[in-house]
Specification:
This protein has 268 residues and is an alpha+beta fold. It has one domain: Aminohydrolase, N-terminal nucleophile (Ntn) domain (Glutamine Phosphoribosylpyrophosphate, subunit 1, domain 1, 4-Layer Sandwich), CATH 3.60.20. 19% of the residues lie in helices and 35% in strands. It has four helices and 15 strands. Strands 3-2-4-1-12-9-13 form a seven-stranded antiparallel beta sheet, with helices on one face. A six-stranded antiparallel beta sheet has the order 5-6-7-8-14-15, covered by helices on one side. Helix 1 runs antiparallel to helix 2 and helix 3 crosses helix 4. The longest helix is centred in the middle third of the chain and has 17 residues. The radius of gyration is 17 Å and the shape is globular. The two termini are 27 Å apart. 43% of the residues are buried.
């Protein structure tokens, strides 16, 4: 299976420390060697880096690790292929436009017999179940709300309903963001930590790297980091219960809803 990494902040922040540990899991400290990608929101724009090679030996991943891009929302992914060949077109995260904003999506899991009808507004480029689910989800949001973006609470409720439908087909851990908020679904495995004042030191599990956040933050800063498995070994991470959907904004969780699926129902 794949692994996910997300960050949601109240001020633009770099993800270099967390990505250092995450990068090692792409073929060095773990088996996720079938590609990697990361997307940064900067205002209404995005920077997306994708590569169908192990992140642990990637010069491009090393560039990202050393380059302090500041963003309020970041989504990263390391891949262990289940559906679709190893190739750039099947590498997460995926990006599409909806309501004049870029949306970024990454998935960890495996969806079986998930073949919904797509109306052509959003079409997969690759052949993964992940990109198909992303396209269907955005299609359903556009059908429901038309050309006008909904209020945040209505959007979260709709994503919750659609997640319930897709999750009936299998493991569906995902991260989704439009640059304003970050939505995280813990189908099986996901954890998060909120770093805020008083800031302390953190030490990575996958690399012998320690950082003292008190040297690089202000008392008003707040950062939520979400990962498939905790990235540090000296901090208290919160394990997100299986079958829960989370809404993060300004560096903290806003709302959580349960998503345990009922009997299988094929999406229309």
């Amino acid at each position: 299976m794949c692994q996910l990494l997300g960050m949601n902040c109240n001020v633009p922040t770099d993800i270099c420390f967390s990505f250092t540990g995450f990068q090692a899991r792409g073929g060095a400290t773990d088996v996720h060697s079938d590609g990697w990608g990361i997307a940064f929101f900067e205002g209404r724009g995005t920077r997306v880096f994708l590569e169908p090679k192990p992140s642990c030996t990637s010069p491009l991943a090393e560039l990202v690790r050393q380059y302090p891009i500041h963003s309020k929302n970041v989504i990263a992914h390391i891949r262990k292929a289940t559906q679709g060949v190893v190739g750039l077109e099947n590498t997460h995260p995926f990006m599409r436009e909806l309501w004049g904003r870029y949306w970024i999506f990454a998935h960890n899991g495996n969806l079986l017999d998930f073949t919904p009808e797509l109306d052509g507004c959003f079409i997969p480029v690759g052949v993964t179940d992940s990109e198909r689910a992303f396209c269907w989800l955005l299609q359903k949001l556009r059908r429901r709300f038309g050309g006008t973006p909904p209020a945040p609470a209505d959007l979260f409720a709709a994503i919750h309903e659609l997640t319930l439908e897709i999750a009936r087909h299998g493991e569906f851990n995902f991260l989704l963001s439009n640059g304003d908020w970050l939505f995280a679904h813990a189908s099986t495995k996901l954890a998060y930590i909120v770093r805020q004042a008083p800031f302390t030191q953190a030490h990575l599990k996958d690399q012998d790297v320690t950082v003292d956040f008190s040297d690089m933050t202000t008392a008003a800063d707040r950062v939520a980091v979400i990962a498939t498995l905790p990235l540090t070994d000296n901090e208290a991470w919160t394990v997100m219960p299986a079958g829960t959907l989370w809404w993060f904004a300004e560096g903290e969780p806003v709302q959580m809803l349960e998503t345990r699926p009922g009997p299988e129902k094929k999406p229309a």
